[in-house]
Design goal:
There is one protein chain. This protein is an alpha/beta fold. The chain has one domain: Rossmann fold. The chain contains eleven helices and eight strands. The protein has helices at about 1-20, 40-45, 60-75, 95-100, 105-115, 120-135, 145-155, 165, 180-195, 200-220, 240-250, and strands at about 25-30, 35, 50-55, 80-90, 135-140, 225-230, 255-260, 280-285. α4 (about 95-100) runs antiparallel to α5 (about 105-115), α7 (about 145-155) runs antiparallel to α10 and α9 (about 180-195) packs antiparallel against α10 (about 200-220).
Amino acid sequence: MKYRLILFASAVFIFSTAFKSDKPAYQFYKSNGKKTKYGKVLKVARNADIILFGEMHNNPICHWLQLELIRDVFTENDSNNIILGAEMFEADDQLILDEYLSGVIKERNFEKEAKIWPNYKTDYKPIIDFAKANKIDFIATNIPRRYASVVHTGGFEALDSLSQKAKSYIAPLPVLYDPELEGYKSMLDMMGGMGHASDKLPKAQAIKDATMSYFILENWESGKIFIHFNGTYHSKNFEGIVWYLKKANPDLNILTINSVEQAQIDSLQSEHENTADFILAIPVEMTKTY
């Protein structure tokens, strides 16, 4: 009997020690800071109208989970029920993106002529490849960066001088803007502390949010799931893209995921609570893609 107790105690010690020595790559949390599992996130995702997956652009765990989420939602739905889109592709590249996905042009032409990000091949190409292989529409939602720069320099009113063709790549003017949204206020406060305060900077951010929201809604249909990838700042605290989507259609079922880095991920830091429906916590020392 004593021998069995010793064996049992030894087993408990071994298993508990092994558990403590695990090095988890991520941990999902609910908005209230309670731990949850990927399966729960997936269950909610399958019933959403629009999913905004806020990423850290250079984090491989974000990109891996984005692809896994697409695959798992796609498993439950045919390709006609899923639409993909991303901040990383600008609206004036939609034609060349469509040409590549449909097989009209070759990959080398697409990668040479589209304004792809430097980390495209490691981080976004797998998603584009999945969309191409499964004939899933992929929407270039972001404003062309040259027009965001116009706002940064001259404010919203500077966009009025653009041609009608140029304006077709932007959310319809004039755009709504709430300078009291915390994300825009904090951006202005931060730049003020650096001696560069100007309301044109948050306006340049807002025109991106408004345009991404616009092209999401232009391509979403009831009964479909639009999965969108953007920097976490664009949907954090249910602002940015979320604010514009809700202004256009308050009945939308929107799921937000906010990605954060922490020294330890066994509990969620309080400042990250209530920033999204689900918070994806990743060790700060995770290898970066660039």
